[in-house]
Amino acid sequence: MSTKIYVGNLPYSVDDASLKSNFSEFGSVSSAKVMMDRETSRSKGFGFVEMASLEVAQAAITGLNGMSVDGRSIVVNLARPREESNKSSGYGAAGYTATQRKDVGYGTGGYGGGRY
């Protein structure tokens, strides 16, 4: 079973290949991905590495956490599972849904309409 590792405080010069090569010293790397900003195509300063086993991942965390990369001390730890968002509005599988809040929008008073 593979283990996912969070890598934070990365310098903007780090790319997927260099991240993978740094972690491959500790064992088999399934994937390495630096998160990029959609608008600027620049690194967001963090990424994720997926390693073959928990033992290999722990060795990489111990060896690389706090290490200086281009003058920045990187943070390396186990990645937490992604939390489900409770978005109350926006486009989704069922189409557009308005906000679930009762104190905003039309029909509640204030600007743009309301009850009289």
User: Approximately how much beta-strand content do the residues carry?
Assistant: 25-35%
Overall geometric form = globular
Q: CATH superfamily assignment of the domain at 3-78? A: RRM (RNA recognition motif) domain
Mean pLDDT: 83
Report the total helices. Answer: 2
| Cα radius of gyration in angstroms | 21 Å
The largest pleated sheet is described as: 4 strands, antiparallel
Terminal Cα separation, in Å? 62 Å
And the CATH topology of the domain at 3-78? Alpha-Beta Plaits
| Strand line-up of the largest beta sheet | 2-3-1-6
Number of strands: 8
Annotated CATH architecture of the domain at 3-78: 2-Layer Sandwich
Helical content class: 10-25%
> What's the helix-strand series?
EHEEHEEEEE
User: Low-confidence stretches at least 5 residues in length (pLDDT < 50)?
Assistant: none
Based on helices, strands and strand pairing, what is the structural class?
alpha+beta
What top-tier CATH class of the domain at 3-78 fits best? Answer: Alpha Beta
